[in-house]
Amino acid sequence: MPTFTDDVVVNDANNGTQVVANGTAPGNGGGVRVQKAGTDVGVAAVSGAIKGTSEAHLMVQATSGRKVLLAANGSTTEHMTVHTDGSVGIGTSAPSQKLDVAGHIAVSNNSAHYSRNTAGFLVPVPFVDNTNTMYVGSDNPLGVNSLILGSGQPMIFRVSSAERARLDIFGNLGVGVNVPREKLDVDGGLLVKGPEPWFDVRAFGASPAIPDNAPLIQAAINAVPASGGTVFFPAGQSYPCQTSISLDGKTNIRLLGGRSGEDTSTALNVALPPTLLYKGTGTHFISMKSAFAITMTGITVRYDNVGFTGDLIQCGHAPAADSSYLRFEHCSFSGWGPLEQHGNNARSLIYLDYAILSSITDCWFGYAQVAIFGRDPLHYSNVIQVNRCTFNYQKTASIKNAGDSWSIVSCGFETGFNPSNTSAYTQDLSCTARAFTWIGNWFGDIAGNSASTWVSAKVAGMHFAGNYFENPAGVTTLRLTDSFGAHISGNHLQGGTAIALAGVAMNGISIMGNQFFSVVSAVTNTGIITPNSGAAYGNAGLANQTW
Question: What pLDDT digit, counting tens, does each position of 398-412 carry?
């Protein structure tokens, strides 16, 4: 066999000349063998020549311990490497995976693209496939970012190996729920900011570590434009305030407290609402005079200074417009600390003088002289709704001096454990509550206040229905003085005197369909009622009668 020490060049003008290595028997196929200093480094041959079979495929084989390198365009740097362990590298000479690509991968016919992340694994970048396909960016034929999964498959989002959210095949999104029942099903708190401007008090420097946060909270309130916005208080934070906060003349502002899930980076109990804690002794803490469309949601407002004798929240004229469309929702109002030993000296928690068309819903009221104070006897407070609220430990009364068209619905009154004669409602006889409604309220735990009266009013038009009373002996349930036009029906009355009628010129009193249960006296009439203008019919425990 001839041996050449120089290049062997085969020329043919017709490109017909070839170097042919031909073999026909298994194991004896011809091939091109490559050596260095007489040592084989590889062979290109018919595969049967290497594998000992009759297969007729081209096979390139590197000898033991050697790699196969491919380079193009005259480059001395390999473009493709087959490593000794069988790994293939494209653009890298040291593949770390079975296929290691330094760069993007494009798969024609819908152009799927992948890139290498910091961990060295392939991740999808904009690609398109017409079946089980993710569309991202400009490759999306629809022209928008999309994510399309195979038929019948939900999309599951996992963080730290735990499922956090799921979009099912019906388009329902569950957050913390793996079987969402509605279009949005959330297990936990839901914070919806909405389109309006958003002002987090922390951005204005408010902090539990600051002795007086009132000026900082005031700055957040003042930043809200005339078109409205939200002032946000994160959950679990308590903001001490030495001075007052003013919403006088403000419009369309929502004071919003965060709930569970907010500010979880802190060690605070984020399940608790935020607290505005007044430590001063002024005439009021928060003023809403002439305010319009102010909403307070999910905030605790308290005071802890025994020297505070004013109103925690006050309404009124500044200078002349009514406070209107105020809403208090899911809030708590109370004294705190030593005040829980009945040193609750604040005149009221919410003072609604000159307030109209406003509501208080799902709130709790604690220690104070009066929880909700309506009107000054010479002023007005009209169209006020108090719904699903709870009242505890007021020193004088839970509610005082309603105006026109007040409704108290589905509230709970537990005013007991005070040494004084606490009432659920009381009224200065120099003013009259007109079109007054009490429906579906619960009254109990007045033990120790045997001389008390639950509801003492002077009314012109009253509907008192569906209320339940637990009274000890001596407690009067309902006392009407100088009143007319009162309909009392469907109540459960228990204890001392159920209904006391007093005063002069009373008429239009109807008592119908009530349950008088274990009462000492069902009805007492110590006043003067216009003849034939009062009647009791169809009551359990009370005979029919007229006055």
Answer: 999 999 999 999 999
